[in-house]
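Journal club prep, notes for RB
We'll compare a predicted complex against what the paper describes. Inputs for the adenosine-5'-monophosphate-propyl ester case:
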Amino acid sequence: MIKKISSMAEYHQQYQESVQDPEGFWAKQAETFMWQKKWDKVLDWNFKEPNVKWFVNGKLNITENIFERNLPTRRDQVALIWEPNDPKEKEIKLTYGQLFEKVCVVANALKKQGVGKGDRVAIYLPMVPELPIAMLACARIGAVHSIVFAGFSATSLMDRINDSQCKIILTANGLFRGNKNVALKSIVDEALVNCPSIEHAIVLRRTGDPINMVEGRDIWWEDFLKGVSNENTAEVMDSEDTLFILYTSGSTGKPKGVLHTIGGFMVYAEYSFMNVFQYNEGDVYFCTADIGWITGHSYLAYGPLLAGATSIMFEGVPSYPDAGRFWDIVDKYKVTHFYTAPTAIRALIAMGDDWVTSKDLSSLKVLGSVGEPINEEAWKWYNDLVGKGRCPIVDTWWQTETGGILISPLAGITPLKPSYATLPLPGVQPVLVDPEGNVIEGNNVQGNLCMKFPWPGIIRSTYGDHDRCRVNYFATYENLYFTGDGAKRDEDGFYRILGRVDDVINVSGHRIGTAEVEDAINQHPKVVESAVVGYPHPIKGAGIYAYVTTEHLTDDQLATIEKEIVDLVSKLIGPIAKPDKIQLTPGLPKTRSGKIMRRILRKIGEGDASSLGDTSTLLDPSVVEDIIKGAKVDVKR
Ligand code: PRX
């Protein structure tokens, strides 16, 4: 197992070592894992193509590192606790031994359906134990999982399945989320009409809803498992074989399939989990993220399970049946480590302090934050009310593409500064650059955040289109990985993440590409064009503001168009991408070459027209006046 850093002096020493001798440093970490064959070379890399390979020619299976490596000491220790949406339903606890058996059964069932090494498997499941079981079963047989968050629409699911040509989909008849009951299978049915690569849909019965089963294609979960052995020998994989694809939004085009490979992801997931959270034997760790997002992949499933931890997965939402739900779970299982997103904290602040103060949170030792900058008010509430001032808050900065946490305090070790992600983990070499790509040296500076050296969890490619990976992350600045975030480095060398500098909006900690939302809005038959920007939102961090121009509308059409647009975006992408504000406007501010000046729209959406800058280069400057007049916020001039 990875040995944890235990003091600031040790952090500095490991950091130095990781920069001076990265290969030696990571070899030492990787040696604590179970390899079928050791690597020939620790690292091969260039950021030009890019081509990054960790633990070259090493052979392993990540699930042997979760199970065979942990079982001798943890067979009867609880690996996974499942807390259902409805608190009246019974929880499920699976020990490492029980989880292993379930993973082996599903692995064998997948094989029986003809799924093998390298095949892609779509997983579109609620937050139920079958989700991590299916994920690990894929890894066991060398299939590549592509998990799609079960809040995405049929169109989004279809795009993802088709992009990576998935052979099989694992899903459920329905799901419970708060007081909602979503008919998941009907969404799948709609998607699969246009997914020729899918041979079978395996359907778990989660709700009581009757559904339509397509003869020859659909198989009930229990039938899928029938007659299958619970013993399975792990497929021997190469360190650089693909572990999973996870789709994420960027500034242009459709979401891209971020591709992670086995060896590097594994080493980095456990290393970062142990060090950031400082997990100790007997602790109970609760990450509130859905496994459909990267946080759930790395820090609900893989990281904690590799580390032999006890990890809680929660099916529901923080407000159901009431706003005390998270804290009830903390009390029920005596949670020691709690990891959530600032948007959830802000939503709970708005519900009042009593929901927290009335609960017993004395088991808590470490609090975590992820997904977006945590504002000082939320930080203080989290620290004072939840942590009672005695639990360090780890503000963890990272991305789908980074595979694991890159900049974060180590709990109880790194000094904290509210709203600062603080210092890079060993092996992580951040730089700030100006728009021309010149590295900004020294402290008390601000710039675009890049990485100048690979860490083991770094993105390897974008599925099916390697050049997209190069263009998106490695072409903006030569020889650097560009994160898309701006950051500040203060007088102590601590990093504060300032947010996206590209056309990605961080809504409730989820990445939404403005181009994607615009494409959806533009599909409305009456819409001529649209421009989408983010604006400050008290709960979500950023809200979605859509400026839309339409053809001439009758009064009746005018009365319904906003709702139609919202419904369309929800149908084409999913409810998380619904615009919060829609402003119908006769025109959009454009340069003479036809480029939309989003900077101006962003300022107006923020309610600040005092610093619009030079608008004289616009094709028609009067458009700006019209937009300010019709703005859905008070605009200060
Ligand atoms: O803008 C940063 C923000 O979330 C983006 C990554 O989004 P995603 O790939 O969906 O992964 C989210 C979970 C890791 C980043 O580019 N972000 C993430 N964590 C933080 C953050 N912004 C500020 N502080 C953070 N701790």
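Talking point for the session: Residues 248, 294-295, 369-373, 395-400, 421, 483-485, 497, 499-500, 506, 511 surround adenosine-5'-monophosphate-propyl ester (CB under 6 Å).
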